[in-house]
């Protein structure tokens, strides 16, 4: 069983493995850490990040747990903890918005449980926009888990042409078996 079930979490393979559900403005792109007006990440192995534009950019992966080798009985009876993590940051010269939605889905892609924190606005005039992480662990979610949908993104707050929106990297989904 793999550790992190997210493929290409840092953009090392460009946009490979991601479904671009919203690709507004000048669209998603991958940049090298720390980027213009950016911040270094505290994990030296993360050397790239995805960056959003002036209209909403969101991308998603849907993980098929049976295809990844998990047994239906184990998922239904043990209901192993599912931990999600994501990293996001802004720039020193432009504010941005970050959004995350992670859903546990049954075989029909119906939502069993969902983690959708409030939208975050980072404003360099009011505070630190360096890399920060969000994490959540699902437990006791009931039987039927077969897929996990991980979707995140955002945009900038000034509608500047180019790539001034939120930066994301280090996305992770693990199932504790």
Account of the 3D structure:
By secondary structure, the protein is mostly beta strands. Helix content is 3%, strand content 41%. The protein is built from 1 helix and 11 strands; from the N terminus they run E-E-E-E-H-E-E-E-E-E-E-E. Strands 1, 4, 6, 7, 8 and 10 form a 6-stranded antiparallel β-sheet that branches. A hairpin with a 5-residue loop joins strand 6 (96-105) and strand 7. 36% of the residues are buried. The model has no long low-confidence stretch (mean pLDDT 95).
> Which structural class is indicated by helix and strand composition?
mainly beta
Radius of gyration: 16 Å
Tally the beta strands: 11
CA-CA gap between termini: 9 Å
Give the CA-based shape: elongated
Please give the oligomerization state of what you see.
Answer: single chain
Strand content: 35-45%
Q: What is the residue-mean pLDDT, rounded to a whole number?
A: 95
Order of H and E elements: EEEEHEEEEEEE
Q: How many strands, which pairing sense, and closed or not: the largest β-sheet?
A: 6 strands, antiparallel
**Total of helices:** 1
Helix content: under 10%
Low-confidence region ranges: none
């Amino acid at each position: 069983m793999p550790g992190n079930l997210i493929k290409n979490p840092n953009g090392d393979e460009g946009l490979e493995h991601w479904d671009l559900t919203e690709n507004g403005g000048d669209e998603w792109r991958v940049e090298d850490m720390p980027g213009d007006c950016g911040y270094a990440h505290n994990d030296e192995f993360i050397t790239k990040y995805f960056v959003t534009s002036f209209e909403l950019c969101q991308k998603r992966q849907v993980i098929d747990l049976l295809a990844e080798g998990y047994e239906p009985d184990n998922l239904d009876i043990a209901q192993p903890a599912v931990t999600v993590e994501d990293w996001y940051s802004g720039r020193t010269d432009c504010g941005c918005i970050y959004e995350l939605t992670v859903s546990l889905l049954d075989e029909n892609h119906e939502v069993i449980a969902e983690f959708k924190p409030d939208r975050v606005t980072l404003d360099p005039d009011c505070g630190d926009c360096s890399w920060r992480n969000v994490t959540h662990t699902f437990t006791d979610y009931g039987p039927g888990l077969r897929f996990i949908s991980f979707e995140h993104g955002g945009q900038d707050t000034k509608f500047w042409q180019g790539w001034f929106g939120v930066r994301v990297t280090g996305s992770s989904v693990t199932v504790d078996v």
